[in-house]
Amino acid sequence: MVFGGEERVSLSFLQAMIDALPFQMAILDEEGVIRFVNEAWRRFARENGLDNDEIGANYLDITRQAALTDKSAKEVLEALEKVIGGANIHTFVEYPCHSPTERRYFHVHINGFTHEGKRWVLVAHENVTAEVLNREKEEEMYRRFQDLFTHMQEGVVLHEWIRDEKNEIVDYRIVAANHAFSTYTDLDVEKSVGMPATRLYGLNPPPYFEVYKRVYENKKAETFETYYAPMNRYFWISAIPWGEGFATIFLDITPLRKQQQMLEEALEKKQFLFRELQHRAKNTFSSIAGLIGLVALDYSGEVYEVLLKLREQIVAMARVYELLYHKGGGSVLDLSEYLLKVLDGFRESFSQVFEKVKITLDLKPVMLSANRANLIGLWFTEVLTNAIKYAFGANREGWLSFTLQEKDDMVELIYSDGGREKEEKPLVKVEAGSSGFGSQVMLMVVDELSGTQEIWRGDGIRIVLRFPHQKEDSEEV
């Protein structure tokens, strides 16, 4: 067998060559009768339950019957009739051919040729199931994306850059936008697409031009909130690199901002009222303390001392409100500041006693709730009252010290003084209990604070109060 010579290629060689092709192939005569098929055609027939290879069957008649109910078969019939009629065309039709166990799709290729005065048609079926299923998957994904894009509550806009003759970025325009874009901006999507942003928004440079350009050049998304004055709206915007442009996802947060402003105004009013109440409470405490002081002048002895102690306790409570008033709201204060104010009040009221007393303070900042600070104020007042009564007197020299610090979530407050005795006596720990009113108040405070109190006596006194921090000590109201 010689190609190009006088000898012709044998029929068996052509058969073997066509059998090697993966397509199911058949040759029809001018009547549409199948005259020749390849191995792929025969194998497909066997796999689908046919007893023969259909040679001698009229493919045209079979297609006419199928075309009565099937659109794809009708397209194949029209192509067959044209090719058999002499049309020099090559066409193909995609059609489904599902089996009981799987979905299948084929392309039927139809070619006509003339040999020795007779018209012949080559029909080849190509299995394109994988291609069709992948295409369907891509189309489904695209439909889902379109549904998401269309129905998102966030506005989504795709932009492309506009460049000048030097290829410099000078503007941008909308390529696509979803319905929310119109909802939030009152701009028509169809009219906005393709229009330069400088014209669309009436600004040059267009809105947030530098931000969007930076996002594109750095290939890094940015999110920001902004007030857009031309629309009198607040927006949350996320700008994202997108190909040779950028995309924006945004929300109109104007209602949230207005609600926030209303809450801030309401909070400001509440704080004003709170400060006013604090101020009035402080004044009320001061008035009561003054009246008690006036009444105390008419008494002496034990009654005088009780009234005086009551007055100092009320003054201590007034100091809390004074701190809160100057702090401008909230219910947490610095205990060190509070104790200093209470001490200053004692020094003013008992200037003759404290005139020659050396006071040493080491007060670290400790944040405490106002309620618990009030309790410390009662304890502190009792300690100072006892110091006046038992450690010092008018024009008597002496010393006292206070230490305030935090240790391992515990607050520690230590008071010490030198007492009246001149002889040196070592400090000895004593029981904290006492039948006196002041001691009972101190123990009550210790109990309320869930703390402990230790007392040492000698040539003076040392009292240590420890109590744990609580959640309310760090919560502002």
What does this structure look like?
This protein has 477 residues and is an alpha+beta fold. It has 4 domains: 11-132, Beta-Lactamase (2-Layer Sandwich); 152-252, PAS domain (Beta-Lactamase, 2-Layer Sandwich); 256-328; 331-477, 2-Layer Sandwich (Heat Shock Protein 90), CATH 3.30.565. It is 45% helix and 27% strand. The strands form 4 sheets. The chain has a 6-stranded mixed beta sheet with strand order 12-14-15-18-17-16, with helices on one face. Strands 2-1-5-4-3 form a 5-stranded antiparallel beta sheet, sandwiched between helices. The protein has a 5-stranded antiparallel beta sheet with strand order 7-6-10-9-8. Helix 10 packs antiparallel against helix 11 and helix 11 (301-327) runs antiparallel to helix 14 (370-391). The longest helix is centred in the middle third of the chain and has 43 residues, at 254-296. The chain starts with 10 loop residues before the first helix and ends in a 9-residue tail after the last strand.
Question: Helix and strand layout, with pairings?
Answer:
Elements: H1 11-19, E1 24-28, E2 34-37, H2 39-47, H3 59-67, H4 71-84, E3 90-96, E4 105-115, E5 118-127, H5 129-151, E6 155-163, E7 169-177, H6 179-185, H7 189-192, H8 197-201, H9 209-218, E8 222-228, E9 233-242, E10 245-252, H10 254-296, H11 301-327, E11 332-334, H12 335-349, H13 351-354, E12 357-363, E13 367-369, H14 370-391, E14 398-407, E15 410-417, E16 428-430, H15 437-448, E17 452-457, E18 461-468
Parallel strand pairs: 12-14
Antiparallel strand pairs: 1-2, 1-5, 3-4, 4-5, 6-7, 6-10, 8-9, 9-10, 11-13, 14-15, 15-18, 16-17, 17-18
Helix pairs in contact: 3-4, 10-11, 11-12, 11-14, 12-14, 14-15
